[in-house]
UniProtKB/TrEMBL annotation:
Organism, scientific name: Lentzea tibetensis
Signal sequence range: 1-25
Catalytic activity: Hydrolyzes proteins with a preference for Tyr or Phe in the P1' position. Has no action on amino-acid p-nitroanilides
Protein name according to UniProt: Extracellular small neutral protease
Top-tier EC class: hydrolase
InterPro entries, sorted: MetalloPept_cat_dom_sf, Peptidase_M7
One example of a Gene Ontology biological process annotation: proteolysis
Keyword set includes Protease: yes
Length: 176
């Protein structure tokens, strides 16, 4: 068989495989969300830790630090920690000193509040193994990682087909 004919058959077979779904499709790039923690005062390092937790835990979204305009603005204040998502992946986080002063673990607070920006609600009451159980996990709780269910929900919310249709419109705010 001539080389030209073999190459043509190989190209046609590859194209047919892609069309019918036999060959794996290229993985979509994650949605990149920027965060600015310039106003997070003494919590800047734990905010970075919280972002790393999510980056290590999910693949459909990636949190990237910036010093300019950002999807997520993080500040410190003397109140209770809270988040105000505006749309999926956008909003404001307050790293409240009140919970830290009561003994709650700052890296868990950061991961938890970023979870709200990523579309997760509070799960209260809940065990320490659930990141979104927040304060009901207890003061001794040091778990900073989302569980399998929480990871799956974030992956689903940021899958490319959802991002294209914009099917999200919820807000979650922590209360003491």
């Amino acid at each position: 068989m001539p080389v030209f004919l073999r190459k043509t058959i190989a190209v046609l077979a590859s194209t047919a495989a892609l069309v019918v779904g036999i060959a794996p499709a290229a993985e979509a790039a994650p949605r990149v969300l920027t965060y600015n923690s310039n106003g997070a005062a003494e919590f800047k390092a734990v905010v970075d830790e919280g972002a790393k937790v999510w980056n290590d835990s999910v693949k459909n979204v990636k949190l990237v630090k910036t010093t300019g305009a950002a999807n997520i603005t993080i500040v410190a204040d003397n109140g209770w920690p809270r988040a105000q998502p505006t749309t999926l992946g956008n909003g404001r986080v307050w790293m409240g000193r009140q919970a830290v002063d009561q003994g709650y673990y700052p890296p868990r607070i950061a991961s938890h509040e970023l979870g709200h920006i990523l579309g997760l609600p509070d799960i209260k009451p809940g065990p320490c193994s659930s990141l979104m159980s927040g304060s009901t996990g207890g003061i001794p709780c040091k778990n900073i990682y989302p569980n399998a269910s929480e990871k799956a929900r974030v992956e689903a919310k940021f899958r490319p087909s959802v991002m294209a249709t914009g099917e999200w419109n919820n807000q979650f705010v922590d209360a003491g």
